[in-house]
Amino acid sequence: MNDHVKFLRDRNMSDNHAYAEVAHRFGGDALLDSHLPMLDLVDMLARDYEAMDLADTRHEDLAYALKVLAQSYAEHPDYRQEWHP
């Protein structure tokens, strides 16, 4: 797995845990306007990327898209500038 994909999936998991904590404390209605569906889509893209054959013509483009998505965590101490698209 590429480091930037692992980083993105780790951040995604962390965000999901935070949403679960909010739902636990305040009920599911607290998540109605959340970004939770987006997190699921990002995770789906990351899993598709990991399963994709390197020869697939979409592989490089999806890697770029995941780097763009990882930029939302650029302030995180584990983010690397080399991942900047």
Give an overview of the whole structure.
It is a single chain. This protein is an all-alpha fold and 85 residues long. Helices cover 61% and strands 0% of the residues. The protein is built from three helices and no strands. The radius of gyration is 14 Å and the shape is globular. It starts with a helix and ends in a 15-residue tail after the last helix. 12% of the residues are buried.
Task: Please provide a brief summary of the model.
This protein is mostly helical and 85 residues long. Helices cover 61% and strands 0% of the residues. It has helices spanning 3-26, 36-51, 59-70.
Keywords:
0% strand, mainly alpha, 85 residues, single chain
